[in-house]
């Protein structure tokens, strides 16, 4: 059985704080430029510290993905002790990590197989794909089978975010000025989804109770869930998250709905006062040929 390592960047978010230490995963940090200072995400600044700092900043921070040379250095180091590397990154429509990793992979071609995968997602969705890869490494015997499992899961990840402040959305051109002005006049807040790898405005609500209703409705659309997480902007459970959990407990008895603080890479896009849900839908079983 080949020895396989997983590489990702700090745009990936994991509900379990110990996941990375328990699996063959290397995380290369993004860099965050906040108020003239640069920090390595998750190294110099924790998610909680970053969101607290960003809450007082009028301008969205600049997120810099790992460079080609940073990826190449990690690939070359891992290639000394492994047969293959699976490298999983945020949507190429959002950050340049995938492109940088793809160029770096060419530098180690011939020494180690490196497969670079566009998650078409960000944050928890990207983290879920890393988890899929880690599980596949434990049960699959070939690199092709593992890559197939991860790429199949890309199409089964669904994301929705409720955002209370549109400042960062405007700066990142996720929301137009006209939509923002209209929303302010009518007292409505945006919902975002990730479609075709892009963060997009999909609908609006007026109250937090309506936001909770919509988050619950989003999850209830799935009959079989492989993985799920509620993303919030506080380290302790928020009122909205508790309401979502309580409502979902009725529709999904026995299903665990964990919550976690979302990371600075996502906060840089959507702000520091959002609540979201990310779902990995279970893979449909192949029909029995006898029927």
Q: Can you give a write-up of this model?
A:
Helix content is 38%, strand content 25%. It folds into 2 domains: 117 residues, Rossmann fold; 125 residues, Hypothetical Protein Tm841, Chain: A,domain 3. With 291 residues, the chain is α/β, with parallel strands linked by helices. The model has no long low-confidence stretch (mean pLDDT 92). The chain starts with a strand and ends in a 10-residue tail after the last strand. The chain is built from 11 helices and 13 strands. Strands 10-9-8-13-11-12 form a 6-stranded mixed beta sheet, sandwiched between helices. The protein has a 4-stranded parallel beta sheet with strand order 2-1-6-7, with helices on both faces.
Overall, the morphology is globular
Query: Number of helical segments?
Result: 11
The assigned structural class equals: alpha/beta
Given as residue ranges, the uncertain stretches (5+ residues, pLDDT < 50) are none
Tell me roughly what share of residues is in helical segments.
25-40%
How many beta-strand runs? Answer: 13
Give the topology.
Layout (H helix, E strand, L loop, with lengths): L3 E6 L9 H4 L2 E4 L2 E4 L2 E4 L6 H8 L7 E3 L3 H12 L4 E6 L7 H11 L5 E6 L5 H16 L3 H12 L2 E7 L3 H5 L5 H10 L2 E7 L2 E8 L2 H13 L4 E8 L6 H13 L7 E3 L2 H7 L3 E8 L10
Parallel strand pairs: 1-2, 1-6, 6-7, 11-12
Antiparallel strand pairs: 3-4, 3-5, 8-9, 8-13, 9-10, 11-13
Helix pairs in contact: 3-4, 5-6, 9-10
């Amino acid at each position: 059985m080949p020895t396989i390592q997983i590489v990702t960047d700090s745009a990936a978010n994991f509900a379990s704080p110990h996941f990375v230490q328990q699996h063959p995963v290397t995380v290369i940090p993004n860099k965050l430029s906040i108020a003239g200072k640069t920090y390595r995400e998750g190294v110099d600044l924790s998610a909680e510290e970053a969101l607290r700092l960003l809450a007082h900043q009028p301008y969205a921070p600049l997120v810099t993905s790992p460079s080609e040379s940073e990826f190449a250095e990690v690939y070359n180091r891992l290639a000394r002790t492994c047969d293959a590397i699976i490298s999983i990154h945020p949507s190429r429509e959002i950050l340049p990590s995938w492109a940088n990793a793809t160029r770096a992979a060419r530098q180690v071609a011939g020494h180690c197989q490196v497969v670079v995968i566009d998650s078409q997602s960000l944050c928890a969705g990207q983290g879920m794909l890393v988890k899929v890869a880690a599980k596949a490494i434990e049960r699959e015997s070939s690199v092709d089978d593992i890559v197939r499992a991860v790429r199949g899961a890309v199409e089964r990840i669904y994301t929705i975010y409720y955002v209370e402040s549109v400042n960062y959305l405007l700066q990142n051109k996720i929301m137009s000025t006209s939509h923002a002005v209209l929303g302010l006049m009518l007292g409505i807040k945006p919902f975002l989804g990730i479609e075709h790898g892009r963060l997009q405005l999909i609908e609006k609500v007026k109250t937090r109770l309506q936001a909770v209703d919509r988050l619950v409705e989003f999850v209830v659309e799935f009959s079989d869930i492989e993985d799920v997480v509620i993303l919030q902007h506080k380290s302790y459970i928020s009122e909205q998250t508790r309401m979502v959990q309580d409502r979902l407990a009725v529709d999904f008895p026995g299903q665990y709905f964990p919550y976690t603080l979302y990371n600075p890479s996502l906060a840089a896009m959507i702000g520091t006062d959002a609540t979201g849900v990310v779902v990995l839908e279970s893979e449909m079983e192949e029909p029995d040929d006898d029927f």
